Amino acid sequence: MQVRPLGDRVLVKMVEEQQRTQSGIYIPDTAKDKPQTGVVVAVGDGEDVKVKEGQRVLFAKFAGTEIKIDNEEHLILSSEDILAIVE
């Protein structure tokens, strides 16, 4: 399935990093917060969009609308909800 965001919206695939404590214990998925980083999959045709496909971005904690595409978690965000580009 292909999704193309409209206007200044951005489709982001959420990236979950495996977390563990300093002593080496892995934190289970149920105890983790929602990830705040992701990779831009598609960009709308709005003029105010400043990110490109393939860039890794940091976004606001409760931003966007969660959707599943091919059993993978994605977010549709407004470009205003993107806080930074991670390099």
TrEMBL record:
<comment type="subunit">
    <text>Heptamer of 7 subunits arranged in a ring. Interacts with the chaperonin GroEL.</text>
</comment>
<dbReference type="InterPro" id="IPR011032">
    <property type="entry name" value="GroES-like_sf"/>
</dbReference>
<comment type="similarity">
    <text>Belongs to the GroES chaperonin family.</text>
</comment>
<dbReference type="GO" id="GO:0005737">
    <property type="term" value="C:cytoplasm"/>
</dbReference>
<comment type="function">
    <text>Together with the chaperonin GroEL, plays an essential role in assisting protein folding. The GroEL-GroES system forms a nano-cage that allows encapsulation of the non-native substrate proteins and provides a physical environment optimized to promote and accelerate protein folding. GroES binds to the apical surface of the GroEL ring, thereby capping the opening of the GroEL channel.</text>
</comment>
<dbReference type="InterPro" id="IPR020818">
    <property type="entry name" value="Chaperonin_GroES"/>
</dbReference>
<keyword id="KW-0963">Cytoplasm</keyword>
<dbReference type="GO" id="GO:0005524">
    <property type="term" value="F:ATP binding"/>
</dbReference>
<dbReference type="InterPro" id="IPR018369">
    <property type="entry name" value="Chaprnonin_Cpn10_CS"/>
</dbReference>
<dbReference type="GO" id="GO:0051087">
    <property type="term" value="F:protein-folding chaperone binding"/>
</dbReference>
<dbReference type="GO" id="GO:0051082">
    <property type="term" value="F:unfolded protein binding"/>
</dbReference>
<dbReference type="GO" id="GO:0046872">
    <property type="term" value="F:metal ion binding"/>
</dbReference>
<dbReference type="GO" id="GO:0044183">
    <property type="term" value="F:protein folding chaperone"/>
</dbReference>
<dbReference type="InterPro" id="IPR037124">
    <property type="entry name" value="Chaperonin_GroES_sf"/>
</dbReference>
<dbReference type="Pfam" id="PF00166">
    <property type="entry name" value="Cpn10"/>
</dbReference>
<keyword id="KW-0143">Chaperone</keyword>
<protein>
    <recommendedName>
        <fullName>Co-chaperonin GroES</fullName>
    </recommendedName>
</protein>
